[in-house]
C-alpha cells in the first residue's frame, strides 16, 4: 500500500513528530537537528547564533487580531526569542495563487513590515512564486529568522530543567485556535474572540534580565498540552499541572463547549511556558503580569522516568494529558 501524507501530519502533535523522527531526521542525519527545538543554535566565528524557519498557511488570511503577515513575523521571531536569542534578520517568501487580490497582498506585506519594525528585525531576502489558479489556496508564506545570543550563560536549555521547578504560562491559552475556528464556523463568534497573535520579545527580554529561566517554549500548533509533552520527553521529567489554575477566557470556553474542543490543544500565537526555580516564581509571575494579567503558575516538574504530563482535574482525579493525536483544524497557522 502506498504511504501518503494525511492532514494529521500537520497538526503539530504525535503524527507530526512521527513524520519528523521517522522520515526527515534519518535522511538529513544532522547532529544540529537532533535538538529538535523550534530554533537551532550553533557556533559561528566564536558567536552563538540561532536560526528558525516556518511556513504559514492560515485561513482566513485576515482574522480578528491579525493576519497571515503579522503571524509570519511573530511566529518566527517568537521562536528565536524563547530560545534566548535576539532576533536580527528575517527572510520572507511568498507562494501566491493566480488571481489573488493585489490589494490584499499589499495589506499583508505592509503588516509584515509593521511587525518586523516592531520586532527590530530587518527583512533581508525573499522570494516570490506564482502558481496557476487552483494549485494553491490564495497565499502561503515562509519566513526564516536569524538571531544572536547576547548572554550565553543565561540562555534557556532543556538541560537546566530540574525536579520541583515551577511551570508558568504567560497568559490565557487557546485564543488563536479559537479565533480561527470562529471564522470557519457560522456561530457568531467572529467578533468575540481575538487571536493572541503577538510579539513576545519585550516580555521575554525583561524576564531573562531578572530571572534565571531554565527553559521556555512558545505555544503554537498542538497547544499547551503538546508543548508540555515535548518538554517532558526531552527533559526526562514528568510535568504535573492543575486544571483549575490553567487560564482560559470565558469566550474560548464557550466555543469549546459548543464544538466539543479541548482548549489544552488549541493553538496560541503569543503565549509561552517558562520553567523557573521555585524561589524565583513570584518575581517571574510579577514580570509576566505586566504584559498579561492571566499569567500564573500552572504546575510543577516532577522527577520520574515516565516522561509524561499529568493533569489534576477539578473533580479531584488525575489524567494523562497526551500530545495532540487527532486533526483539529488544518489551516490554523
TrEMBL record:
Coiled coil: none
GO annotation, biological process: protein maturation
SUPFAM superfamilies reported for this sequence: PurM C-terminal domain-like, PurM N-terminal domain-like
Domain of life: Bacteria
Pfam families: AIRS (PF00586), AIRS_C (PF02769)
Xref: CDD domains: HypE
Residue stretches making up the PurM-like C-terminal domain: 165-310
InterPro entries: HypE, PurM-like_C_dom, PurM-like_C_sf, PurM-like_N, PurM-like_N_sf
Residues in PurM-like N-terminal domain copies: 37-149
Protein family (similarity comment): Belongs to the HypE family.
PANTHER family: CARBAMOYL DEHYDRATASE HYPE, HYDROGENASE ISOENZYMES FORMATION PROTEIN HYPE
Protein's name in the database: Hydrogenase expression/formation protein HypE
Species annotation: Caldicellulosiruptor acetigenus 6A
Amino acid at each position: 500500500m502506498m504511504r501518503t501524507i494525511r492532514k494529521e501530519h500537520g497538526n503539530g502533535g504525535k503524527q507530526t513528530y512521527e513524520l519528523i523522527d521517522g522520515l526527515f531526521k534519518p535522511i538529513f542525519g544532522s547532529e544540529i537537528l537532533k535538538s529538535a527545538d523550534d530554533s537551532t543554535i550553533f557556533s559561528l566565528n566564536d558567536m552563538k547564533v540561532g536560526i528558525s524557519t516556518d511556513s504559514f498557511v492560515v485561513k482566513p488570511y485576515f482574522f480578528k487580531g491579525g493576519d497571515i503577515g503579522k503571524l509570519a513575523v511573530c511566529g518566527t521571531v517568537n521562536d528565536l526569542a524563547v530560545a534566548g536569542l535576539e532576533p536580527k534578520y528575517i527572510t520572507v517568501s511568498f507562494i501566491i495563487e493566480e488571481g489573488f487580490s493585489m490589494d490584499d497582498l499589499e495589506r499583508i506585506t505592509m503588516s509584515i513590515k509593521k511587525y518586523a519594525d516592531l520586532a527590530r528585525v530587518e527583512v533581508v531576502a525573499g522570494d516570490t512564486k506564482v502558481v496557476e489558479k487552483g494549485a494553491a489556496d490564495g497565499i502561503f508564506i515562509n519566513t526564516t529568522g536569524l538571531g544572536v545570543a547576547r548572554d550565553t550563560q543565561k540562555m534557556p536549555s532543556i538541560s537546566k530543567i530540574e525536579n520541583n521547578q515551577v511551570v508558568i504560562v504567560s497568559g490565557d491559552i487557546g485564543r488563536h485556535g479559537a479565533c480561527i475556528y470562529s471564522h470557519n464556523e457560522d456561530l457568531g463568534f467572529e467578533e468575540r474572540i481575538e487571536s493572541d497573535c503577538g510579539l513576545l520579545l519585550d516580555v521575554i527580554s525583561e524576564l531573562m534580565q531578572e530571572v534565571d529561566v531554565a527553559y521556555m517554549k512558545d505555544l503554537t500548533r498542538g497547544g499547551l498540552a503538546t508543548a508540555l509533552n515535548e518538554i517532558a520527553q526531552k527533559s526526562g521529567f514528568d510535568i504535573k499541572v492543575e486544571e483549575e489554575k490553567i487560564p482560559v477566557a470565558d469566550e474560548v470556553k464557550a466555543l469549546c463547549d459548543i464544538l466539543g474542543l479541548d482548549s489544552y490543544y488549541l493553538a496560541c500565537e503569543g503565549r509561552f511556558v517558562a520553567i523557573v526555580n521555585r524561589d524565583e516564581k513570584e518575581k517571574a509571575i510579577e514580570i509576566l503580569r505586566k504584559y498579561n494579567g492571566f499569567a500564573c503558575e500552572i504546575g510543577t516538574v516532577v522527577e520520574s522516568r515516565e516522561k509524561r504530563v499529568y493533569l489534576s482535574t477539578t473533580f479531584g482525579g488525575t489524567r494523562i494529558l497526551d500530545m495532540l493525536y487527532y486533526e483539529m483544524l488544518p489551516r490554523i497557522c
